[in-house]
Specification:
The chain has two domains: 143 residues, ATPase, nucleotide binding domain (Nucleotidyltransferase, domain 5, 2-Layer Sandwich), CATH 3.30.420; 187 residues, 2-Layer Sandwich (Nucleotidyltransferase, domain 5). It is built from 14 helices and 14 strands. The protein has an eight-stranded mixed β-sheet, sandwiched between helices. Helix 1 packs across helix 3 and helix 11 crosses helix 13. The mean pLDDT is 97. It binds adenosine-5'-diphosphate (ADP). Adenosine-5'-diphosphate binds next to helix 10 and helix 12.
Length: 394
C-alpha cells in the first residue's frame, strides 16, 4: 500500500510517499512559496534530488503538479497507485480525539480552528479541499496533533481562569506534537512488549513538548492552549508570568501582537543567548566559553528536567524516559546534562552508549531505576500509519 503523507505551514507543503509494506520512503519533498513569486519544488527519490522553479498559484496547482511530477518521474504509474493520503493537522480542538476520514465537514471544522493555529490549520484545510476535489477517489485521512492529548483529564487541561472563558471560548490546554508522542509511545510498547507502562516522552526539537503517558494514554503535556507554553524552546519562551506582557508593552511601546511575536520568535534559547535558537550552534559557542550561550543551554536543560520531575510526581513513578527530535536524538551532551539532574530519581546513563546518535537505543545502565531511551521520531510515518489503519478497517 502506498500512502502520501502531507503537512503544511503557511505557503509551504512537505510530502512523503511511503511504501507501507516495509514503511520505506519512496519519495519526499517540499513545495515552497505556494501562491507567491518564485515558487518551487524539491523532490528526492532513490539517489535523485531535483529542485525546479514552477508556478504554484494555489493548492489546486500543488495537487495537480505534484501528481504529474510523481508520474513523469516514474515514481508512480498513475494516481491510482496512491492508496491514501494522510494530512497532518496541527489543531483539532476538543472535537477530534482520533484520526478521521476527510469530508467537507471535517475540512470546515479544521478551517474554523485557524485562529488557534494560524498558518497551519488554514493552509492544511486549503490543501485538503484541493486534493479532494482533484482526486475524489483517493481515501483521505486527517491526523490531528492534538488528538493524542485528548485523554488529558479536566483537572489537567483546565486553566485556573474564569470558567466561562473555557465554556465560551474553549480556553484550555490542547497540547501539540501528539503525533510524535504517539509514535514514541508505540515504539516503547513494542520494545517493552506491553502497554501498561509509565512514560515521559521528551520531544526536543526547535519546538519542544514533554508528555506524561500512562497505559498508552496522555495524562498531561507541557504545551497548552497554543504551542507557546511549556518548556523553553528554540525561539519560544515556554512558560512565563503573563504579567510580563502588559509591562513590556508599556516599557517598549509595543502592541500585544508584537509582544507575542517576541515570545514566539525572539525568546527561548535565541532570546537568552542573543546568538542563535539552534542548539548545535549554541553548543559550539558553549565550547568557546560564550557565557550567554552557556546560560541559555543551562536554562533549557533546567526547564526540561523540571517538567520531567513534575511528571514523575504526576505519574507516581516512571518506567521509561524517551528522548526524541533534533536535540533529543542527536545531542549526547544535552541528554547527559538532563539525566544528571535526574540522578535523585535513580536515573543512570551509560555514558558510552549515550554517545550513539540517530538510532533507537537504550542509553541507561541496567541498574538505572528508570530506563532511558532515544527513539527517533517519525511523525510523517505516523500520519501514514494512521491513514493505512483507517483505510484497512473501513
Ligand atoms: P523541528 O522539526 O522542530 O524544526 P528538529 O527536530 O529538526 O526541529 O530539531 C532541530 C534542533 O535540533 C535544532 O536546535 C538543532 O540544532 C538540534 N540538533 C540537531 N542535531 C544536533 C546535534 N548533533 N547536537 C545538538 N543539537 C542538534
Amino acid at each position: 500500500m502506498k500512502i502520501l503523507s502531507i503537512s503544511t505551514r503557511g505557503n509551504e507543503l512537505k510530502f512523503y510517499l511511503f511504501e507501507m509494506d516495509d514503511q520505506s520512503i519512496i519519495a519526499n519533498g517540499i513545495i515552497s512559496r505556494i501562491g507567491l513569486e518564485d515558487s518551487s519544488y524539491s523532490i528526492s527519490f532513490g539517489s535523485e534530488n531535483i529542485t525546479e522553479h514552477v508556478e504554484f498559484r494555489d493548492y489546486n496547482d500543488v495537487a495537480n503538479i505534484l501528481f504529474d511530477k510523481l508520474v513523469t518521474l516514474n515514481i508512480i504509474n498513475s494516481s491510482i497507485d496512491i492508496n491514501g493520503i494522510g494530512f497532518r493537522v496541527v489543531h483539532g480542538g476538543s472535537k477530534y480525539v482520533d484520526s478521521v476520514f476527510v469530508n467537507d465537514k471535517v475540512i470546515q471544522d479544521i478551517g474554523d480552528l485557524s485562529d488557534f493555529a494560524p498558518s497551519y490549520n488554514d493552509s492544511i484545510s486549503l490543501a485538503m479541499r484541493s486534493f479532494r476535489k482533484i482526486f475524489p477517489d483517493i481515501p483521505m485521512v486527517a491526523v490531528f496533533d492534538t488528538a493524542f492529548n485528548q485523554t488529558i483529564s479536566e483537572e489537567n487541561y483546565l486553566y485556573p481562569l474564569p470558567l466561562d472563558w473555557y465554556e465560551k471560548y474553549g480556553i484550555r490546554k490542547y497540547g501539540f506534537y501528539g503525533t510524535s508522542h504517539k509514535y514514541v509511545t508505540k515504539k516503547v510498547s513494542e520494545i517493552l512488549g506491553r502497554n501498561d507502562f509509565k512514560l515521559i516522552s521528551c520531544h526536543l526539537g526547535n519546538g519542544g513538548s514533554v508528555s506524561a503517558i500512562e497505559n498508552m494514554k496522555v495524562i498531561d503535556t507541557s504545551m497548552g492552549f497554543t504551542p507557546l507554553s511549556g518548556i523553553m524552546m528554540g525561539t519560544r519562551s515556554g512558560d512565563i508570568d503573563p504579567s510580563i506582557i502588559p509591562y513590556i508593552m508599556k516599557k517598549e511601546g509595543l502592541n500585544v501582537g508584537e509582544v507575542i511575536d517576541e515570545l514566539n520568535n525572539n525568546s527561548g534559547i535565541y532570546g537568552l543567548s542573543q546568538y542563535s535558537g539552534d542548539m548545535l550552534e549554541i553548543l559550539e559557542e558553549c565550547n568557546k566559553g560564550n557565557e550567554n550561550a552557556i546560560r541559555a543551554k543551562n536554562k533549557f536543560v533546567r526547564s526540561v528536567a523540571d517538567y520531567i520531575g513534575k511528571y514523575y510526581v504526576l505519574l507516581g513513578g516512571v518506567d521509561v524516559i524517551a528522548f526524541t527530535a533534533g536535540i533529543g536524538e542527536n545531542s549526547v551532551q544535552i541528554r547527559r546534562e538532563i539525566c544528571e539532574k535526574l540522578a535523585c530519581l535513580g536515573v543512570k546513563l551509560d555514558l558510552d552508549i549515550n554517545n550513539h546518535i540517530g538510532e533507537m537505543i537504550k542509553i541507561s545502565t541496567d541498574d538505572s531505576k528508570i530506563q532511558v531511551y532515544v527513539i527517533p521520531t517519525k511523525e510523517e510515518l505516523m500520519v501514514a500509519m494512521d491513514t493505512e489503519k483507517l483505510i484497512k478497517n473501513r
